Structure formats: C-alpha cells, structure tokens
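Escalated from tier 1: adenosine-5'-diphosphate holo job.
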Amino acid sequence: MTPVPDPAHRRGLLIILSSPSGAGKTTLARRLMAWDPTLRFSVSATTRPPRPGEVEGREYYFRDREGFMAMVERGQMLEHAEVFQHLYGSPAAPVEAAIGAGRDVLFDVDWQGGQQIRASALGKHTLSIFILPPSMRELERRLRQRGQDSAEVIAARMKKSRDEISHWPEYDYVLINDDLERTEDRLRTIVSAERLRISQQPHLVEAVRALNSEFEERA
Ligand SMILES: Nc1nc2c(ncn2[C@@H]2O[C@H](COP(=O)(O)OP(=O)(O)O)[C@@H](O)[C@H]2O)c(=O)[nH]1
Ligand SMILES: Nc1ncnc2c1ncn2[C@@H]1O[C@H](COP(=O)(O)OP(=O)(O)O)[C@@H](O)[C@H]1O
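Tier 2 regenerated the structure:
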C-alpha cells in the first residue's frame, strides 16, 4: 500500500538522509521515492564533476565554482557546504514550493547540510536519519564495488568517514544499513509514523472541534 499523504491536510516534512560516502543513502533515497511518488527529492547543486551516467538536473545541477557561489550570494541556497573538496548545496525554491503544497522533501546531504536545514526557517518540520555501514570493511567494499570513484577518491572518503560518522548523535534516527530490504522497510516505517506527528497534521484542530460540536448537539 503506497501511503499517499493528502496535501490539503498535511504539512510537508523535510526528510534528511546523511551517511558516510558509500553507506547507501542514494540507494535508499531512490527506493523511498519509488515507494511514495508524492515525495519530492531535493536535487542539489555541486561543483563535483558528473560521474558516468549522472544527468544534469537528475542527480545534481552541475556548476562551476563561480556559478555555485552566485547562487549562494543570491540567497538561492537553503544550505551549502564544502564536502570532499567540492561544494554542494540545496536550492531553496523547489523545497519551499513542495513544502507549501504539503509535500515531503527528501534530502541527501552531509552533516553540515543537516545542521543548516535544522537551523533554517523550515527547520521546525525536519526528520533526520543517519545511515551507518555495518563495518568500515563493508563500507570500503561498497565504494569499490560501486565503481564510480578512483582509488584515491575512495581512500580520501574512507579517511573522512570517521568524522562524518561522529555526527550521528545529531540525528533523530540511526539505521545500520546491513540488509538493504530490512533497512528500506525500517525507513518506510519511520517516515509513515513521523507523518502522523501532531505537528504534521494541522487539520486535527478542526477534527476535534467537529467532535465537540457533535457532542454538544447530543447533550
Ligand atoms: N551539505 C550538502 N551535502 C551534500 C549535498 N549533496 C550531496 N551532499 C553530500 O556530499 C557527499 C558527496 O556526495 P557524492 O559526491 O554524490 O558522493 P556519494 O555520497 O558517494 O554519493 C555526500 O556525503 C552527500 O551527502 C548538498 O546539497 N548539501
Ligand atoms: N545494504 C546494502 N548491502 C550491500 N550493498 C549496498 C547496500 N546499500 C547500498 N549498497 C551498495 O553500496 C554502494 C553505495 O551505495 P550508495 O547508495 O551509492 O551510497 P551513498 O549514496 O551513501 O554514497 C552502491 O553500489 C549500492 O548499490
């Protein structure tokens, strides 16, 4: 059953997925999007060159440093950070439009992005989930098996992963991504439950008021 939130009744959630590179957040984000087509994915801007198969506007908006910083200076970024010697950032306009329409927005950002989104004006309605690999050995195996980065890049990312992992206490949930199916199932459970928080259901006041008026009529 695909949970289709009623945009008229729900307040959009900002769902933040973070993890060390290679832990599985892109894979899990894609699976969440397949599970619930009403979810909007926040496509980031980056100065990192595209990997084979990456498409402008799908995985990222690929910019040079000047173009990226122009977006920052124009106040078009909800957050941005330097990660692995490249700039990454979340354009604000698509996020504001989606949240305004009662849609949840999914972010694949590092711990710096997570901190900035939580501190932003939209930060009241965030759900943040940190994905851990089952082991460093498995993390390295996944980076190698993915075949998208050079040996040097993999070594640099493995070195940085300890620092990334140290931010796990800042998140609402932590999932160890050992079995992919089980992790995906847990992710769906978390999103489904968080959508039912009182803060995400502005129509509850009306619903209770209707119950009370019905009660008075019966009295
Ligand atoms: N702060 C921030 N981090 C981002 C953004 N987009 C991607 N990242 C992070 O940048 C890191 C590198 O991303 P990428 O080069 O796609 O490598 P991957 O993590 O192995 O897929 C990852 O840890 C992402 O979480 C963004 O818009 N903002
Ligand atoms: N639970 C898992 N078990 C085995 N391989 C996985 C698992 N989750 C992801 N992977 C694989 O690990 C590699 C890195 O996953 P990816 O989603 O690109 O990570 P990230 O976006 O965090 O860098 C990919 O080849 C992906 O298919």
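The longest strand covers residues 77-83.
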